[in-house]
Every structure is written in C-alpha cells, then in structure tokens.
Amino acid sequence: MDSPFETLGIDPDADEDELVDAYRRRVKSAHPDHGGSAEEFQAVRTAYEAIRAGYEPGDELEPVETDGRRPADEGASRNGQHDVGTARNGETGDGTGGAGSDTGPDPEPEPERRGARVEFLDYDVLTDRGWSLADDDLFEKAAESGLDGDAYGEVFVEPRTNLLKAAEDAGHSWPFACRGGACANCAVAVVEGDVKMPSNHILSEEMLEQGVRLSCISLPVTDDLQVVYNIEHLPGLDELRLPPQHARKMSAGD
Fold first, then answer.
1. DSSP for 134-185?
2. pLDDT in tens, 183-233
3. In this structure, how many other beta carbons lie within 10 angstroms of the beta carbon of residue 247?
4. Which residue of 131, 198, 230, 247 shows the fewest CB atoms closer than 10 Å?
5. Which of the four pLDDT bands, split at 50, 70 and 90, describes residue 62?
6. 146 contacts 158 by C-beta, under 8 angstroms
7. Residue 194's CB: how many other CB atoms inside 10 A?
C-alpha cells in the first residue's frame, strides 16, 4: 500500500505549499469525472488529511469524513425543483372550484421531503443589471425579473448531498473543477441560511466571513438557503481556480 507521500507524489520533507499544490493536482486527476475512480479520489483525500495531521511512516491511515456519497454518484433522484400543485385556494384542476364540483378523486399528496430548499442566482445577472451581493432585496428583484431557469430558480437538497451535486441532479450546470475542495471554481456566496464544509484548505477567513463557500463540499444546515453561484472570478478567488478540463459551466455528465 502506498504511503500518503507516494499517493501525492511528494517527498516526506515537502513544505506546506508543496503539499497543497500536489493535492490540488492529484484530487482533480483522481476524480471519476476526470478519468480517475472513486477509490483513487478517496485515497488522495485520505493521504492529504493524514499528512496535515502529522502522519509518520508506519502510522495507520484513517479514512477522511465525506458526505456519504461517491464523488460521481448519480443515484440520487432528479427532483431538485418543487412541483406545482394542481389545485390552489379551493380551485379544481379545471379552474371551476367550489364544493360539489365533479373533480374525480383527490390528487395524491406530495411525499414529505427531507432536506433543504435552495434559491439560487447566477452572478452574471448581478453584473449585467448592476446589482450587488449586498443588496437586501437581491432575491426579490431576481424573482420579479423573469429570469430563465438556469439564471434563477430553486433546487431541493437531500440530506448528505452537497450543493453542487444537488444542482446537477436538478439539471443545472454550475462551474466546477476538482470536486474536492481544492480550488475556487465551484465557489458560491451564501446570502441567507448556512452550510457546513467538512474541511477548508484554500478560503481565507475574510472570504468565509463574506459567506463564500465551496459548493462541491458544502452541506446545508438550515431548511432554506439563498446562494449566488458562478462567483469564481471575484477578487481573491480567481487565483484559487484550477483550469477545468471541461468547458466552463459544463455539467459532470457531458
């Protein structure tokens, strides 16, 4: 079995910068979307965390905490957007409404969902319209602007699912590169609500205070969220990006 240093391709006396650079390279190439495998991807993450924790030759490796899913798992159902009910405020399906209408059997109630509702907005909309992340009514303006479903909408995030995966399961194409928290290609700004990241290797404290998170490893901890995606070119984030092998905003399945 390779040692963590062999897995990352560095010498045991490598410094912190060399370690981070090696991890960023290997975690991208190891991901199934980029020609690797789930096992290789996990081995790279385990090696990196072990070295940061003070690994010495002969130590036993402990697997790192993940979100409980394979990095390229497509097993989740694609139900990110809420369905609109067939009857509202007492109206029937044909709009006649009222008691005594011959409407047939009542519609089946929607199954109870567990997870979080995430309202999202593309940062390109802000630049096109002169809006700001600091606008208190940012999402109200977005909701009233008739934007298309990729620029503005909502997804439902099932438990133990990260934001990026939930968006992809709903048919959206958010930017990404490594999927391992080693770059800023998938960064989002959390405007309302909260998420947790199991680890953070690149974002500064200032960025975290501004609500910047990595969607590829961020799990919702509140029932409702508002996030702005596609912020990868904001000041401070551009230099943390990796050149993606896929075209910008191409989904993992393409």
1. T-TTHHHHHHTTT--TTTEEEEEE-TT--HHHHHHHTT-----S-SSSSSST
2. 999 999 999 999 999 989 899 999 999 999 999 999 999 999 999 999 998
3. 9
4. 247
5. low
6. no
7. 13
